[in-house]
Every structure is written in structure tokens, then in C-alpha cells.
Predict the 3D structure of the following.
Amino acid sequence: MKKKGISCLVVVLLLAIVAGCAEKKAYVPSDVMSQVKAERLVQKADNMAIVFDKSESMNTLYNNASRLSLAKKATSELVQTIPSDLKLNSELRMFGQEKIFADDSTWLALPWTTNRSDLQKAVDNIGDQGLGRTPAGLAMEATYEDLKKTKGKAAIYLVSDFENTENLDDIRPKGLMDAIAKIKAAYGDNACIYPIQVGKDPKGTLIANEVVKASACGFMENADNLKTPAAMAAFVQKTLFERSSAAAAKAAAAAAAAAAAKPGEAAAPRTQTPTAKAAADAAKAASPAVQAIMKELQIPDINFHYDK
């Protein structure tokens, strides 16, 4: 009887282990490229900097998990969702306290690389325990220096709870905004910042929105809104892709054509309607690519001889 009891117990434990493993399903990202091709989008960022908060406040529980584990999960799924064949230079920068008894600082967990698997490994190795305060300003200052080693445009993902403990010299909002101002002055719209807030600390949300306002390029998102593969795919699409200039020009030309003439109506040879005149004025300021497409479409009522 004892042997049978032990055998049954072993079977139950094994089943529990198997069931536990089955619950941890591998993340299956949505296909970003199919939508990119369908909408004729083009890559807009050549570099991707992930700036990750590993401070003590990230240990706070949120929805039955630590903010740190949720931030790590969102970042991992972000990396997995980026198309594998997309040529992208990436780095992972941390901030908080790298070791026990160390000073609050920022450090590179992974320097610039085009190897996506190395980036994934670096994210997987972030760890599960945050230490120290939140020197986000130091991290963004260092990111500014990191960008000097790159060419092209950059997408900066600032992953944090953005929690600031007043009178504790914590996140240091002024230093953070000063660092972002330096990035903005040096790179303009060539460096866009996308804060990803973990948790819903109200003051943290305000700081994240101030980051967006200071950068004047990018937008803030909450990790709660990126839980599904489809939502993460949409986020990747918005931050790493954009409509091509040719597609935008063609759309503008088509809109001008629709506004300039109605089907079945003949255009007066020398008279322009107010709408057509507005379209003509727009055409004068348009790029050569737009003008060429408008000519191909044979838009009525628009005179391209601007000296007459």
C-alpha cells in the first residue's frame, strides 16, 4: 500500500509539473511585415535604444507581479515582435544600482549590435531584483553619448514606472528633461522617445508625458496596453515604420484630384474653381515627386506653368 501511495504521489507531482509548464506558453508575435507591406510602409528608425529602469521601485507589486517582471516581459515581447530581417542597430542600457552597495548609476547591458539574438539574451538576463534610486537623467545623458556612435534615425524606448519620491532625489525630473533637451537639440526628429510606463502611478504618468512633450517626437504608452501580440505589433509598426514619401505623395495627389473635379463634369479651359485653385497653389509648393504623380493622373483645372 505504501508503494502504491508513493507511486500515486509521484504521478500527481509529475502531472502538476507538466501542467505548470503547459501554462507557460511561448510568446508568439504577430506578423508585422504583412501589414507593413500592405500599407507600403518603410523603415524609419535605423537604431533602437532600450533604456530600462532597474531601480528599487520596480520591485513594487502591480497586478500580482513586480513591475520589474512586467517591464522585462513587455521588453522581451517588443524585441520578439520586431521583424527578424529588419536591419536595426540596437543597445540595452540600464539604470538604478548595478550591484549592492554601489552608487546609483547607468550601465550598458549590451552595446550597439545588429545581432537580435544577443539583444534577446541581454533582455532575458536583466534579472528579477531592482536596486537603488531612479537616475533616469543619467541614463538619458548616457544615451545621448551613445547615439554619437550611430548613423541615421533612432527610436528610444524608455521603460520605467516613472515613480518619483519627492524629497528623496529619486528620478530627478529636471536632470531627465535636461538630458532630453540635449538629445532634441542634437538630433531633432531623428531621435524619437517612446516612454513605456509600467504600472499606473499618476505622478509617473505626468513625468512620462513631460518626456514626450520635451522630445517633441514620439508618444507615451502603458505596458498594460501592449499585452496582446496584436497590440505589440501595432506599437512596433508605429515606432519603427512610416508611410513612404512616394505613397504619401500619391495619396496627396489623389486627394487633390478628387477635390478638383467631379465625375462627368467638364472643366472650364481658363477658369479655376476655388477648390481647384487651392489644389493648384498646393501643387506649387509640392515636391517634384508629387507634381510628377499629379501630372500622371491628369488632374483637371491645375496649371503647372507657374510663371503664367
DSSP finds eleven helices and ten strands in the chain.
